[in-house]
Automatic annotation (TrEMBL):
<comment type="similarity">
    <text>Belongs to the YjdM family.</text>
</comment>
<dbReference type="GO" id="GO:0016787">
    <property type="term" value="F:hydrolase activity"/>
</dbReference>
<dbReference type="Pfam" id="PF03831">
    <property type="entry name" value="YjdM"/>
</dbReference>
<dbReference type="InterPro" id="IPR013987">
    <property type="entry name" value="YjdM_N"/>
</dbReference>
<keyword id="KW-0378">Hydrolase</keyword>
<dbReference type="InterPro" id="IPR004624">
    <property type="entry name" value="YjdM"/>
</dbReference>
<feature type="domain" description="Protein YjdM N-terminal">
    <location>
        <begin position="3"/>
        <end position="32"/>
    </location>
</feature>
<dbReference type="InterPro" id="IPR013988">
    <property type="entry name" value="YjdM_C"/>
</dbReference>
<dbReference type="Pfam" id="PF08274">
    <property type="entry name" value="Zn_Ribbon_YjdM"/>
</dbReference>
<feature type="domain" description="Protein YjdM C-terminal">
    <location>
        <begin position="47"/>
        <end position="113"/>
    </location>
</feature>
<protein>
    <submittedName>
        <fullName>Phosphonoacetate hydrolase</fullName>
    </submittedName>
</protein>
């Protein structure tokens, strides 16, 4: 017998693996094994715009022009941000951008470099 986790939706024990996904035959819920492990760890998981998991110290690239409140400056598309720190809150990335200074960004507007 395999050691597959129970379904996170209906808690069914009849889960099976299909091409990298775990599937529940009772409720048709599909999920990845990575998602199951992240849920068990309990801490918040931060993802970029492409769904990659972000960690402290990563380098990310801005995917959209971002206006800076209270200033006429703009963070341009393609700006690389090095050594990010992940924090809880609405803006979950704390960083320092060259030429602009300390900033908080949302993870939905960056991709992992």
């Amino acid at each position: 017998m395999s050691e597959l986790p129970n379904c996170p939706e209906c808690d069914s024990v009849y889960t099976y693996e299909d091409r990298g996904l775990l599937v529940c035959p009772e409720c048709a819920h599909e999920w990845t094994a990575d998602a199951a492990q992240e849920k068990n760890e309990g801490g918040p998981v931060y993802r970029d715009a492409n769904g990659n998991i972000l960690e402290d110290g990563d380098t990310v690239t801005v995917i959209k022009d971002l206006k800076i409140k209270g200033s006429s400056s703009v963070v341009k598309v393609g700006t690389k941000v090095r050594n990010i720190r992940l924090v809880e809150g609405d803006h979950d990335i704390d960083c320092k951008i060259d030429g602009i200074g300390p900033m908080k960004l949302k993870s939905e507007f960056v991709k992992k470099a």
